[in-house]
Amino acid sequence: MGQNWVETETAGCDLGDVRLNRRLGAMLEALGERPGKSLPTAFQDWSNTKAAYRFFSNGNVSEDKILEGHFAASALRIQATDGPILILQDTTEFSFKRSAPEKIGFTKVSTGRKLKEGRYQKHAVCGLLMHASLAITSDGLPLGLTAAKFWSRAKFKGTAALKRKINPTRVPIEQKESMRWLDNLRLSTELAGAPERCVHVGDRESDIYELYCLAEELGTNFLVRSCVDRLAEDGATTIARVMAEVQSSGTHEVRFRDAQGKDHRAVLSVRHATMTVRPPIGKQRKYRHQDLQIIHAEEFDPPVGRAPVIWKLITNLPVATHADAVHKLEWYALRWKIETFFRTLKTGCRIEELRLATADRLANCIALCCVVAWRVSWLTMLSREAPEASPAAVFTEAERRMLELSTPDRKRQEPRNLDFYVRAVARLGGYLDRASDAPPGTTVIWRGFSRLADLVEGARIATPPPDTYG
């Protein structure tokens, strides 16, 4: 991949040292050329690999400084687009096996095999958590990360044990891990610079009353999947009871794939209503009620062996008609884009195979890989949304030459646009490119980039300097 993209994603970075800034760009380019390879393979020799390890352990380097340039580039891409920007929020876990796990921290308590005395074996899982916000267009094109937070936990009691001691609705939001949802909403809204254009989309974990209030304060929008049957109207009823009396406004069909890749089709009955939603009893003095829109979509006749599709959404966006409700359901369906990003980061960049020993070093490396994973996701969607775009901004001349040479004869007559070269990369990654095949996905593209880097390097080595033979 060309150097231009590296300059774009690092232009806003300042690590306090010109040499560190230069090293950051070189490392990002190396990881971008060979996503998924081990650090020694990506950096090619011991000198560069040792320099990378020093970079990750440098006290002046942190994940937020590494991502600063990418955030700035994301803001520019947001400003260059029109229409609503969906900002997808979610959390993912990275698990590691270490002889000294306390240097990294823990993510959760896992239940293992059953012991002789009848109890189950439990152990704390070594790892890091990352909470990220990814900005996309309403067509699904990833514009980049707008916020990211990394953390781990000390050894802890299970959350169920904690809940028995204290009612979590009484704990101030500032003392909870769920504060990350509010932090990312605030940071992303400020970065985008146009709060009215932003729609913050989250799963059931983001159903936090304080998030509704913060969105109102900032003048921005949210669309989250509800997990709490909140008090509604005058406080004597709940959202579920009110919605039970609402008639269906129509149906909506969704198509999706399950974890095994099998295609499914579901017809949902859609109901929507506007109502007053009230804060939890323990917080009614601190927060005022909100007038929000509720959308419930439930599958008519689910097949045997599959759980029914049920979406319960809550939003401060206007929902006056069935078409409005369907529009919001389609936006929520785009939330899977951040899952694809996480999968690319974990599987494509093989984060959990990193051998770095401390949480800080791992977070620095993951931050760098986040930019690589975003780029693979962006290029995958860009080739679908704008196949006629010029490839020169994406591929160097040497890369284009190698891709042209690797293209089968029957394909060489096609226009040499962005789609042509992206498909060529995908074929290097195992994409069959048959007429009936879906467009290439992130997996074959990240594999293809690694092979492309080897082809370009091989061609460079095989081409003697001009004066070799006098």
UniProtKB/TrEMBL annotation:
InterPro entries: RNaseH-like_sf, TN5-like_N_sf, Tn5_transposase, Tn5p-like, Transposase_Tn5, Transposase_Tn5-like_C, Transposase_Tn5-like_N. Residues 3-61 form the Transposase Tn5-like N-terminal domain. Keywords: Hydrolase. It is an enzyme of class 3 (hydrolase). It holds the Pfam family Dimer_Tnp_Tn5. Residues 371-463 form the Transposase Tn5 dimerisation domain. One of its GO terms (molecular function) is hydrolase activity. Its EC number is 3.1.-.-. NCBIfam families: transpos_IS4_3 (NF033590). PANTHER family: TRANSPOSASE, TRANSPOSASE TN5 DIMERISATION DOMAIN-CONTAINING PROTEIN. This is Transposase for transposon Tn5. The gene is tnpA.
